[in-house]
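Q: Start with the shorter request: fold the first protein.
A: Done. Sequence, then structure:
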Amino acid sequence: MFDLTHKVALVTGGNGGIGLGMAEGLAKAGAQVVVAARNARKSKDAVERLRALGSDSFSIEVDVTDEAAVKAMFEQLVDRCGRLDILVNNAGTTVRKPVDQLSLDEWHRVMDTNLTSAFLCCRSAHPHLQAAGGGKIINIGSMMSIFGAPYAPAYGASKGGIVQLTRAMATSWAADRIQVNAVLPGWIATELTDGARAQVAGLNERVVARTPVGRWGQPGDLAGIAVFLASAASDFVTGTAIPVDGGYSISG
C-alpha cells in the first residue's frame, strides 16, 4: 500500500530542509526522486544522499517562479523518466517584517516563491499526471495558514493561499484521479527557521513550551506524511490540510 517502486516524484526545494526530509522518505519507499532547486551545489549533495538510499535520483536547476523554466523542467523530467506520478511543492522563502515595513518587492518575492510557483508547477504537471492515469500533489503550507504572526504577513498570506489552491485543485482534478493535499509543518528545525530563532526573541523557548512532544521537529519527521500522501494508501484522501507539528496547533 505504501510502495512507491517505479513511481517518479518531483520535489521543488528538495535539496534541503523539509523538502529533503520528504524526498528521503519517498526514496526509501522506492520512488525515483527528482530534485528541483536553484542551488546546484546543494542539489548535488542531496542527490548523493538520495542515491545512497537506492533512488535513481537526479536534479534539475530551475527557478520555479519562471513560467517558461517550469514548463521546460517538466518536459525534461518526462523525457528522461517517461512519466510523472508525484509532485511536492516545497520551494519557499520568507521576509520577517510587519506589513507597514514590508516593501512591494518583498511581498512579491514571497508570494511568487511560495504560491505562484506552486500554481505554475501544478498547472504544468497536470497533463503528465493525467497521462500516467492519475497521481499525487503535495503542497507545503504552514502553521501560519492557521495562526497570525505580526512578522510574517506575506508568508502567512502565501501559505493560506496554498491551502485554498489545494482545495480548488482537489475538486477540479478528482475526476482525473489526482489527489491534492497540503501539509502544514509546525516548527521544524531548518535553515529558514534558524533565522526566525535568531531574529525573534524567545521563540525557541515558546515553541518548546507549547509543543506537547517538547521539541522542535526535524525534516525527517515529514517523511512519513509524504509517503502516505504519495501512495495508494491515500487514494480517498484529497483536499485536506494536515498539520505535522508535534501537537502545537492543538495546544492552548
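Q: Next, the second protein, separately.
A: Sequence, then structure:
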Amino acid sequence: MDCEKYKKLIEKYIEGTISNEHVAELKTHSETCEQCKEEFAQCTVLEDVVREAFSSRMSAEEGRASVMASLSAGSNITMRRAQYNLDWLAGRRASIAAGILLAIGLTLGFYMGRAGTDKPTGAKVPMRIAELNGTVLVRHEGLDAWKVLKADSNIHLGDTFHSAARSAFVLEMEDKSRIEVNQNSMLVLKLYNGQTQFFLEYGRCTAALESPHPPFFIRTPHGRVEALGTEFTVTVE
C-alpha cells in the first residue's frame, strides 16, 4: 500500500494545516494500515493530554497540574511515545520537528518544574528583540525548560532560540546589526565578545550587518560561514 500521501497528511496534521475532510480520510486509512496508525498515534498522544487538561471545566493552574500528573502517571507510555516522536522526527522536515518541539518543550518544561524558576547562567549580552512575530521559544544554557520569547526578553550567552511555524524574530546587536530568523528555525548564540558567533541547527536566517563590523560567524552542521560583506543568508535543510 502506498502510504506516501498519508504521511504528508500526518505532517499537515502536526503543522495544523490539515482540513477536516483530510483528518477523516487519515483516520479511516489508519484503521487498516498499521504503520500509519502507529505514526498517527505517536503524533497525537501529547495533543490528547493537553486537550484533556485544559478543558473548559478547568482553570489554567488546574490544567497545568493535570498535564504534569498525566505525564507522571503515564510515564511508561507517554514519555516513551514522546521519545518515539523525537526519534521519528529526526530524519523528517524541520517544520515537523518545530511543531512537536513546541508542544513537548513547553509541556515537559512544566513537568520538570523548571519553567519560569531557574535563572540563566550565561552572561547578559547587549542584544534586543527588534521584531517578534508568532510563537518563538528560548532556552537558556544549562536549563531544560523552554520559555516563550517576549519583546522585552533579555538575551544571554548560550541562549537557544526556536521559531515555530509561521513565526519569526529579529535580533539587533549593539552596533545596530541585525539577524533575522525565519520560521521553523533553531539558532544558538555561541559567542559575543569582540566577535559574534551563532550556530544555526536548522532553518534559515539572514544577517544584515553594519559596516565596519567585528568578526561575525554563523556555524551550521555542515561548516562555518564568515561575514565578509554586510548581508548574507544561511539555510540548513
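Q: Describe the second briefly.
A: Confidence is low (pLDDT under 50) at residues 53-64, 71-97, 110-116. The helical segments are 4-15, 20-30, 34-53, 60-73, 75-89, 94-111.
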